[in-house]
Amino acid sequence: MRLTQGAFSFLPDLTDEQIVKQLQYAINKGWAISVEWTDDPHPRNSYWDMWGLPLFGIKDAAAIMFEVNACRKAKPACYVKINCFDNTRTVESCVLSFLVQRPSSNEPGFALTRNETSNRMMSYTVTSYACQKPEGSRY
Length: 139
Description:
Elements: H1 16-29, E1 32-38, E2 49-55, H2 61-74, E3 79-86, E4 93-101, E5 110-116, E6 122-128
């Protein structure tokens, strides 16, 4: 099973050259860019840890790739993604998000647990198999 979050998630992993092209596109649009990481990529975990501060007004994609590579080096067993934000409508809206690192080729996936509640209603819970291990050793 392969995690499918963000743009390009159904495509093969982007190369560094392709990532730079996407970053340059975001820079040309005037978007703010942030680098984030997590070891729990649950679909509802929309708040990943931010690597450094958001990057506003960057003119060169190499500066962002420097931060991406620093995050990759410091967090080799974690997912790393890039988020791009557009503030032209006076709100910070995420307009582009994509993964730039996966922890391994063997992604553990998710379990769907069905629970019967009152009046025979069904509720479902999605749980990451990775969360069955302690933080820091999930992959």
